[in-house]
Amino acid sequence: MYRFTLSLFAVFLVSLVSLSAQVPAPVAPASAPTQPAGAASLAWGHENWGALPLAASGLNTSRYVALVLSKHDEANYTREIVRLQWRAADPVDIYILLPHNVTRPAAIVYLYDYRFDSDRFRDDAWCTRATKDGVAAIGFTTALSLERTRNRPLKEWFVSELQEALGTTTHDVQMILNYLSSRGDIDLGRIGIFGQGAGGAVALLAADVDPRIQAIDLLNPWGDWPDWLKYSRQIPDEERPDYLTPEFLGRVKNLDPLLSIPRLTTRHLRIQQVLDDTVTPSQARDKIAAAVRAPQLLARFNDTAAHAASWRKSGLSGWLIEQLTATQQPKP
Q1: Total domains in the fold of the chain
Q2: Which CATH number is 279's domain given?
Q3: Residue range of the domain that includes 290
Q4: Could you read off the pLDDT of 253-267 as tens digits, one per residue?
Q5: Is position 47 within any domain?
Q6: Is 34 a domain residue?
């Protein structure tokens, strides 16, 4: 009986091992971004979101990881996707579009609202328009955008983590310019930035602390946080009280793009406002307009149709290209 029991137990163990061998190993979610090789071994700094200049950010700015994910030659430009990382668990994919037959072109950084993903940077028609005048295009998405919140609680979004979103993305812009400088194939003396919505807020903050950005073109930029947070329709009513507390407002007080506008006196600046935009309330929009130092730097449109008609005349980035081609030409 004892031997029979042992035999049954042995058969059970063999069967259990056999079944275990058939269970597939767990697979990482497809949406989880892959960290560049070597990223895990880097000593990341403790990032200070409230300090916008890189020198005070706490990031280890002298060490980062870059991984080329793809590079393709299209008819009129080359598209390169590079994964960069300078903080833990938050790699940043940048899209570098280089026009053919242009040596060290000027470049425009495109930073759209946090609600938009990177699809446009893979769209051939958009990329062709962005590079048709011989200017490079650099695209990436903001912190707390959909593509950069995959491993975070669903309740966290750009506004709920406003200090982090603004500080992190402003640091990203500067680190991306550092990376572009190391490549040597783009003229860092002719850098412009286009920012829309939340991206417009970051563009102002980044230009304020990085003189390499020579031209700034903004569409409906966010700013004036006390009024914006109080009245913007972007914020669910049930969350709004959380963003009007002295603690929350205190964290973003010094990160208000409204403060940056008057300091950009030596740069080319244009602010475009579409008056039927419901995200930026009129109270904040009017204060942003009042901060502009000259009337010709402000373009106001009654509605989206009027703005689209203007863009059809000047092209995707016509104004920025004019400013960049008027600055110092690239050195031989």
Answers
A1: 1
A2: 3.40.50.1820
A3: 65-326
A4: 999 999 999 999 999
A5: no
A6: no
SS (H, E, C) the chain: CHHHHHHHHHHHHHHHHHHHHHCCCCCCCCCCCCCCCCHHHCCCCCCCCCCCCHHHCCCCCCCCEEEEEEEEECCCEEEEEEEEECCCCCCEEEEEEEECCCCCCCEEEEECCCCCCCHHHHCHHHHHHHHCCCCEEEECCCCCCHHHCCCCCCCCCCCCCHHHHHHHHHHHHHHHHHHHHHHCCCCCCCEEEEEECHHHHHHHHHHHHCCCEEEEEEECCCCCHHHHHHHCCCCCCCCHHHHCCHHHHHHHHHHCHHHHHHHCCCCEEEEEEECCCCCCCHHHHHHHHHHCCCHHHEEEECCHHHHHHHHHHHCCCHHHHHHHHHCCCCCC
In a domain? residue 197: yes
Sign of CA dihedral 255, 292, 270, 235: positive
| AA identity, residue 46 | H
What's the pTM value of the predicted model, to 2 decimals?
A: 0.86
Task: Dump pLDDT digits (tens) for 239-253.
Answer: 999 999 999 999 999
85: closest CA among 57, 109, 113, 61?
Answer: 61
8 Å CB contact between 56 and 48: yes
Q: Is residue 59 situated within a structural domain?
A: no
